[in-house]
Amino acid sequence: MRTPATPDFFGRTREELQELFALEMPDVPKFRAGQVYRWLYARRAQSFAEMTDLPKALQAELKKRFKLPKLKLAHLSESSDGTRKFLFTLSDGLSIETVLIPSEMIDERGETKRKTLCVSTQVGCPLDCKFCATASLKLKRNLTTAEILLQVFEAERLTGETITNLVFMGMGEPMLNLEHVARAIRIMTDPETEILGKKRITVSTSGLPEAIREFTQMNLGVKLALSLHATTNELRSRLMPINRRYPLEEVLAAMEDYYQQSRIPVTYEYIVFHGLNDGPADAKRLAKITRRCPSKVNVIPFHPIDFTHPEGISAELAPAPKAEFERFLAMLRTEGVRVMVRTSSGVDIEAACGQLALAQEKPVELVLP
Ligand code: SF4
């Protein structure tokens, strides 16, 4: 189940490629590794033959020794709101989902269009959040650096669109695959690849304090979000069993530490569940949490999932009616909380937050690129 720590040929940083060249092809000049690095990530070559500034003999040698991995598109479904969900098959036959969410926002320079890609980091997930469809899959394995990067490359290639923002919020807990997530971030944010700026990437975690501290020490310069969803240990432990092991105080301290080290404001994700976490006391506690360090809250409407056997708290989960949702937002704003509302992108194709569960057996609209 464990994904090897050593990356494939594709998925190596510049330094790791240099090491590989030095080890396996010591006669090849060092600068060739840099050329290959640019071909792989900046120019996105899909074969060694495309690397036209390499000598033919080196192209042939690379082809003989290494494979360039691919993600196979199994399904592409499109929502009425423009959200697209990719079902990719990995080389071992397992599947993952990736979601491309278009949105419009007004920034200081006028209207901009965002294309946010929500990428997976694991096949399934070992955590058992009670509102999440991915949880039912359990963990199959971690994704490799290559499989993380290829979600970006393939989404852009298949749609012809340029991704402007990336969130590690698909299937899996990124902090449990930190090595590969961090390597993918380093490659994507390297000025030489120009894939994405650091501030356009968000890593979202369910709250693993030790891993958050390790992530902090990596100094990647990206944004960090916590799936909070409850402001008491009692409710959070029912919604997210991982909270029994890592209670709120420990998780919030690690988030605060991330801000202190990086000076990057943190984000709290908060799904609103009718009658469970949307009262005045919840708003007050949430406001108190947000005051620990500069932060904002993404408030998210709950998207019901077809649980086969809803048990325990899963059976109680329901979306807040619009009026109550609005009242909760108003309470937060009155408390001075910086609130963003995440809209329900892709609900009709089960691509919304917490809905990713490899629904390939269900009929989905196939849109060929
Ligand atoms: S919400 Fe995230 S961490 Fe929780 S079970 Fe789902 S994928 Fe895993």
Written description of the protein model:
The chain has helices spanning 14-24, 31-42, 56-65, 145-159, 178-188, 209-218, 233-239, 242-245, 248-262, 280-290, 322-334; strands at 72-78, 84-89, 95-107, 110-118, 122-124, 139-142, 165-168, 201-205, 223-227, 266-272, 295-301, 339-341. It is elongated, with a radius of gyration of 21 Å. It has two domains: 14-65, DNA polymerase, domain 1; 72-349, Aldolase class I (TIM Barrel, Alpha-Beta Barrel). Strands 1-2-3-4-7-8-9-10-11-12 form a ten-stranded mixed sheet. A two-stranded antiparallel ribbon has the order 5-6. It has eleven helices and twelve strands. Helix 6 (209-218) packs parallel to helix 9. It is of the alpha/beta class and 369 residues long. The two termini are 33 Å apart. Iron/sulfur cluster (SF4) is lined by residues 125, 127, 129, 132, 134-135, 171-173, 206, 227, 354.
